[in-house]
Fold:
Amino acid sequence: MIGTFLNPSTLLLGSEFAEEATNASNFPMIPALIITPLIGAAIIALIPRSRADLYKQIAVITSVITGAFSIAMLVAFQKGDSGYQFVIDQPWISGLGISLHFGVDGISLFLMVLTGVIFPIALLGAKVDHDPKPYYGWLMVLMAASMGVFSSLDLVLFFAFFELVLVPMYFLIGLWGHSNRVYAATKFFLYTMLGSAFMLVGLVSLAVLNARAMGGPITFDLVEIAKNQAISVTAGRWIFCAFAVAFAVKVPLFPLHTWLPDAHTEAPTAGSVILAAVMLKLGTYGFIRFGLDLFPEASHWAAPVMMTLGVIGIIYGAICATMQKDLKRLVAYSSIAHLGFIVLGVFAFSVQGLEGSILIMVNHGISTGALFLLVGWIYERRHTRKIAELSGLQKVAPIFAGVFTLVMLSSIGVPGLNGFPGEFLVLLGSFASARWWGVVAVSGVILAALYLLWAYQRVFHGPVTEPNKGFRDLRLTEGLVIAPLLVLIVFLGLYPKPMLDRIEPSVERLLAHVDLEVDGFELQEVKFVAPAPGEVEDKASHSEAGHTEAGQTEGKP
Amino acid sequence: MIALIVQDAPIETLVAEASTGTPEIIFSAIAPNLILMLGGVLLLTVVSLMRGKSPSWFPAVWTVVTATLAIVALFPLWARVQDEGAQTVMAGAVGLDGFSLFVTGIICLSVIMGALLLEGYVRREGIEGAEWYVLLLLSASGGVTMASANDLIVMFIGLEILSVAAYVLTAMHSKRISSQEAGLKYFVLGAFSSAFLLYGIALTYGATGSTNLVQIQRFLSDTVLTQNGLLLAGFAFMLIGFGFKVGAAPFHTWAPDVYQGAPSPVTAYMASGIKAAGFAGLLRVFVVTFGPTYGPDWRPMVYALAVLSLLVGSFMAIVQTNVKRMLAYSSISHAGFILVAVEASSTQGTSAALFYLLAYTFMVTGSFAIVTIMGRTGDGTHALDDYRGLGRARPGLALIFTVFLLAQAGVPFTAGFLSKFYVINSVVAEGQYALAVIAMVSAVVAAFLYLRVVVAMYFSEDAAAEMMESRIKIPAGASIALVIAVIGTLWLGIVPGAITDVANDAVAQLVAFRS
Structure:
């Protein structure tokens, strides 16, 4: 099965031949993405402790196979299609209308590919000092649950995966984390579970009210409920709030964010990488898929509040990051700022804003994942993350410093690297529909430069203090592990068009749905984006824009 | 017992039967109950005749086989109920419907688990004897009587058979003073609550003129009571009686002490079998009999009980330092969750409660299986500190306990998640959003309790060495019980379709008796 799938002709030519692509969509791609890591976890569980050397190998092999599946899915993805692809729809609990309904569209595609890519890197990049068996086992369970959560199209199924990711993460933080790990793990678990408690009541209410309004049997199918839009405005707003609490904790949005610095800082390196790259996207993904799509009216109603919280997150995260003495905590707070951008873009209700948000989701995963990996390597070498204890590393480890610079610049959002297109599009989109929020958010870009450059200056420049003299430069293996992320940082910064081409149809479909359902809502940026004369199709003009923007930035760095 | 039922049959029926003599007894309809009862009595006889020459495993195996046979006997009855509809037999005293059969199944399951745990336990503690198993079977027979009673007097008799055996079981560990203390406490408070129930039955009889549930239901729907104070007082007293049996706050105060003091396998049975029987009585009397007419009167009472149990159970649990007490408080909060489903007072709520009871049986008997093993000789090491380092010393045991704890916390793909989901579903369908939110938030508070145990097991590496030295033995019976519980917990969480359908088909119905 795996053999045929990894056949190079399928991989390379799949997108060019429609037949190949249909063959691919007959293959149960999404179940394969979920089950492969679970098989890995089962094998790890069965191997006796005497063969401890095998755990890592099996984890790496299964995660690489899963990653290959996700890339194969990317290749076989039909780019013009705005609907769900690779759809699987099987009854699960038929009496209650709960089904195993999976599918991928432009919004979830890259998050799944990111999951597939980042796990092998996190596995290879981080060492584990004790209990390798449960460590790799839980990581594999986490990978399966992450894949499940991004591809579920049934409310209960989504909720189940959304909650399930907590368990492996809880153990990863609690067992392999740093000094304050138990506190951080428990806080993480309870915080998220509290949010989910409201969501569960909300989703059941939604299904019950939907069934009552439609007069049919109860269903938890996302696609159907989103299409029906049968519940009343008031009920929709209440239920949206219930969902919003769960997602706001997960994002995290400003007043509910306090678990994040603890969890990210205390987690082991692989845990931090995955938390930043994958877990944090669950909330914003939820806002798009289960906020905008299910409750267009309520989302639009709540947009000013959400955007305000997003902007507060941008500024607050940046200010807190500036103040941090711990490098890892600094990166954690920078995530709050980036996630603020995503929320702003989602609730700006414009094609650019939403596309930009999805771009940031993926690119933040790549850059911050890489940053956590580098910080983890610094910790491995020096056993400290205190900025004050590190100094002058550039002189003893020039390659390390170079890699760090590139990743840091991408996190700042320097044009030409992957952080830029997303932030640019979000600001563009929010300028069109919510100008003042956009104006304030711009300052976040400057603050990002401030805290990261200042941290870089303190850590890598300055005199080489005694304990830092023996700091080893980047090993070849480490370089190879981080290389894919560096390639992506540069490639997606220069040429985001392939991503945008696949994201855009789904985003447009979603906004058309919002447009249809919300009275008095008007997509504003259509006018804004089309300075190109005449009959140029909207989509084409937009990809042009993405292209030229990338083109312009090409020369800059 | 059969004779008693006949005597207590309503007067009209007796008059109707007078011409033909004694009412017809359809033995096949009460086969599961008969198997449990005869199994218990025969076990006592056989062991007495063998004069101590029977091998020590014999009573346990006998009990497991008996309970399994009772479960097997449920299948033809289930088919009969599904084909022909619910029936009433034995002069209107016993109802045969999907509901009673489902609860019978749960009680038999909890007997099997209890017997499997007892086997190693009594040997370890040096208190072997067939009496444990005889009492277990008789108690279960009382529970089954209660679940299938169509008459308040029969229900009371069932409750007493169930309880008296349980009082004795609680106090049976002759070497532990706390066991006897718990037994006494359970007996005094239990007798007190039985009196309340009986008083409630009397008041209801005074208000409606009958103890037969069918006739009460008919009377209440035909007649508008100008003064219903008597009936409402009857509701209140009966709720106290049932509330005590299921361990609902504020009638829960016995539970932590008794759970802690009772022999661990008995606690497992108490938390699963007795709770199921109590809820069966509660559902049949309140939801089925009083629900259609007097729902608005008793539902607020159950609402209050549910909220109190959820809050008391989850908040009190997190300050405990003894694992058995923690599980006792957690069982109060689970009772609160099931009461939420009772409050819905709908067929959907009844199915949700049934699913919850079955799921909880797997989770809680599994948890107490671990507690039984961890209690070690003397059944005394139940402090949270005694679990420190288990994750390192016995990873398999710790992982299984983690599964049960996370399932009780409601983590998806375990039985605990779907049972909570069904309850929320049923109560939201009745428009009780606030109750649903309270239930879910208190579940989060309760999750902290389960995490505390997980933290103790996994995140205190310093204690691992000490734990390695203390040899923990897992007897054969307990390991079978653990396997059953793990499979059940995961099975109900991953492929719940079949059991969900069965729980939905297990409708509680009251059918008038036709001779």
Remarks:
- The CA atoms of residues 266 and 479 of chain A lie 25 Å apart.
